């Protein structure tokens, strides 16, 4: 029973250390997204819509990732630690394999949503293919509109099929 108690205490300590590291990684990731986005905005190569999508989706992904990583079963985490692995090793071989499928599936889902959101944002002037469609409609160039809508639908269909296939393989 003492071994079980020690194992439980080690798992609790590992989980607490891991949670602190996850929070740090989320903060570093958010800072990197903001830094890269700010650099591109200042260089004029990133639109405001791109920045809005990047920040909001990074925040959503970070929140869901942290919840998925916190919800893993602590028992498999103790095995690498019992074999002498430090926290990064316990994370790689005990935590990540349990959460990787759900994390990848959610990432693909959010990517699909981002592709659709860019189409909508373009219609309100945030750039992209949908803005080109809007401009072509204003100019009464309906042949271009048909081609651009077909390209947009093609992009959405390809992303949908690729995402479904990747999610099927991962999960």
Evaluate the radius of gyration. 22 Å
Structural class: mainly alpha
Describe the largest sheet.
none
DSSP, total strands: 0
Global mean pLDDT: 75
Strand content: under 5%
Characterization of this structure:
There is one protein chain. The model has no long low-confidence stretch (mean pLDDT 75). Helices cover 87% and strands 0% of the residues. Helix 2 (48-70) runs antiparallel to helix 4 (87-123), helix 3 (75-82) packs across helix 4 and helix 5 (129-138) packs antiparallel against helix 6 (142-170). It is elongated and about 70 Å long. The chain has helices at residues 2-43, 48-70, 75-82, 87-123, 129-138, 142-170. It has 6 helices and no strands. It is mainly alpha-helical and 171 residues long.
């Amino acid at each position: 029973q003492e071994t079980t108690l020690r194992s439980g205490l080690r798992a609790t300590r590992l989980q607490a250390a891991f949670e602190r590291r996850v929070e740090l990684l989320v903060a570093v990731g958010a800072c990197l997204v903001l830094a890269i986005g700010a650099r591109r905005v200042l260089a004029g190569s990133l639109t405001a819509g791109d920045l809005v999508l990047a920040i909001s989706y990074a925040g959503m992904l970070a929140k869901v990732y942290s919840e998925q990583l916190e919800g893993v079963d602590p028992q498999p985490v103790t095995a690498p630690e019992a074999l002498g692995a430090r926290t990064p090793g316990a994370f790689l071989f005990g935590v990540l394999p349990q959460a990787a499928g759900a994390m990848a599936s959610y990432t693909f889902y959010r990517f699909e949503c981002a592709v659709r959101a860019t189409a909508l944002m373009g219609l309100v002037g945030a750039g992209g293919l949908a803005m080109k469609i809007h401009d072509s409609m204003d100019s009464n160039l309906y042949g271009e509109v048909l081609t651009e809508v077909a390209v947009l639908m093609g992009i959405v269909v390809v992303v949908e099929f690729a995402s479904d296939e990747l999610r099927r393989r991962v999960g």
